Amino acid sequence: MEILHISAECYPVAKVGGLGDVVGALPKYQHQLGNFAKVVIPAYRNKYYHTHEFDVVHQAGMWLGHNWYHFNVIKERSNELGFDLYLVDIPGLLDTPGVYGYPNDTERFLAFQVAVLDWINEWQHQPDVIHCHDHHTGLIPFLLNYGYKYERLKSIPTALTIHNAQYQGQFGWDKLYLIPSFDLWKSGMLDWGGAINPLASAIKCAWRVTTVSPGYLEELYYNANGLEALINQERAKMVGILNGIDNVVWDPATDRMLPLNYDEDTITAGKQTNKQHLCERFGLDASLPLISFIGRLVGDKGADLLPEIIGRSLHELAGEVNFLVLGSGDPHIEWSLQQTRAVVSYGFNVHIGYDESLSHQIYAGSDFLLMPSRVEPCGLNQMYALRYGTVPVVRSTGGLKDTVIDFGDKDGVGIRFNQASVWDVCYSVKRAIELYRDSKHLDEVRLRGMNIDNSWDSSAQRYLEMYKSMK
Ligand SMILES: Nc1ncnc2c1ncn2[C@@H]1O[C@H](COP(=O)(O)OP(=O)(O)O[C@H]2O[C@H](CO)[C@@H](O)[C@H](O)[C@H]2O)[C@@H](O)[C@H]1O
């Protein structure tokens, strides 16, 4: 089966968060299962682009509203990723160092989608499935169904994966002229709440819609940032498939970003050495439990609660615990964390920014990983933590609920709490410290977590079954 994944991110080419991890791993596993998986993303001007060699496979031009853009589709030459990687290069729009956050993001991703479809339109054959990820590729199912120039692609089955329904990519009807001409009677298939909503459009037009965990699908029926009615209406084509993790990239026994590798047999010494390195770098005390947070500093992740959680815990439990935060996002949250760091003289440090190696070192060197998410469609961090013998401390929501059992229950591997509130988290911090002091119990919980198989094997199979059901 030939599957074409279309996305804004793909690790290690371009990653901002979990979307990149999934699109960098799922195709690899699909390939291993005997399929032909291809990935196409924009050609951002980042390190990967500058350090790899590409062949031009397609050259063309297109109108975006009143502007004409030349574009190239280029293919990575070495095939090092385990699947075919294509980049769409549109100078003047996609040749940015970063992925998102530009004032013309609507135009950038619209042009990306049009370029991808124009390119597929030129193929001698057709892929068996087009798999779109999140709202940046959400207009593709609509254009395939109703766009005049894509008539011959209409019969290709399309799947949409919702990685996070909080982000929908809406823009005003005044930008309608940017969309290639289509059957205007079908305009309603673009609309949600009086705006053009790419995520809603994809939910209406794709043949199947998946969410990244079964728990998140259940939540979306009553809490989907305004799309609840639509998701209920399209219930018949919705499927929840839990994300996996790339067990090759995320393996403490071979991870080249760690100061010392370790496995189940060497976990105690391995984690201690990694923790010492981390604590030395960040001025923390390696003899105390280390609780870390990694992620986008936004309200959905509960990151706004961190300054108060940390301040209050360090006040009540002075000299009993350390905290470390890695992340970037909302400038106000970044500022509050830096202020907290300036006020507390010990037990806390923060690194504002995106740093892939440091994230691996934190998964390895921490005792606990805190995830007070308000919304968590799947969450990969807790699965990485488990693989590295770090106990996840999570709010019972979405995919976190599907993947972490509290250590108080049978086969428990983590700590769970119900509310994204400072009080609930501080209480869980105390439970973490108690568990840390009971080293025999901590070792059992850690080992159980390390032995869980969260790899993509079974989920990649489920995606294939879903594709087959679309025929
Ligand atoms: N500052 C930083 N430096 C280095 N690495 C950083 C970092 N900030 C985040 N990361 C990394 O980015 C990834 C984050 O993954 P998540 O699944 O937690 O989040 P995200 O909300 O982006 O993804 C959305 O899509 C994914 C995939 O479907 C869902 O799991 C998730 O619930 C949904 O919100 C992890 O690999 C993490 O280590």
Automatic annotation (TrEMBL):
Q: Where is the Glycosyl transferase family domain?
A: 285-413
* Sequence positions that bind ADP-alpha-D-glucose: K15
Q: Which InterPro entries has this protein been placed in?
A: Glyco_trans_1, GS/SS, Starch_synth_cat_dom
Entry keyword set: Glycogen biosynthesis, Glycosyltransferase, Transferase
The pathway is: Glycan biosynthesis; glycogen biosynthesis
Enzyme class of the recorded protein, top EC level: transferase
On whether Glycosyltransferase is a keyword of this UniProt record, the answer is yes
In this chain the Starch synthase catalytic domain maps to 3-232
Give the Enzyme Commission number: 2.4.1.21
Please report a single Pfam family linked to this protein. Answer: Glyco_transf_5
SUPFAM superfamilies named among the record's database cross-references: UDP-Glycosyltransferase/glycogen phosphorylase
In terms of Gene3D superfamilies, this protein maps to: Glycogen Phosphorylase B
**Record field: catalytic activity:** [(1->4)-alpha-D-glucosyl](n) + ADP-alpha-D-glucose = [(1->4)-alpha-D-glucosyl](n+1) + ADP + H(+)
> Molecular function (GO) terms listed?
alpha-1,4-glucan glucosyltransferase (ADP-glucose donor) activity; alpha-1,4-glucan glucosyltransferase (UDP-glucose donor) activity
Q: Which domain of life is it from?
A: Bacteria
Q: Which GO terms describe its biological process?
A: glycogen biosynthetic process
The entry's family comment says: Belongs to the glycosyltransferase 1 family. Bacterial/plant glycogen synthase subfamily.
Q: Tell me, what does this protein do in biology?
A: Synthesizes alpha-1,4-glucan chains using ADP-glucose.
Q: What is this protein called?
A: Glycogen synthase
Q: Which organism is it from?
A: Chitinophaga ginsengisegetis
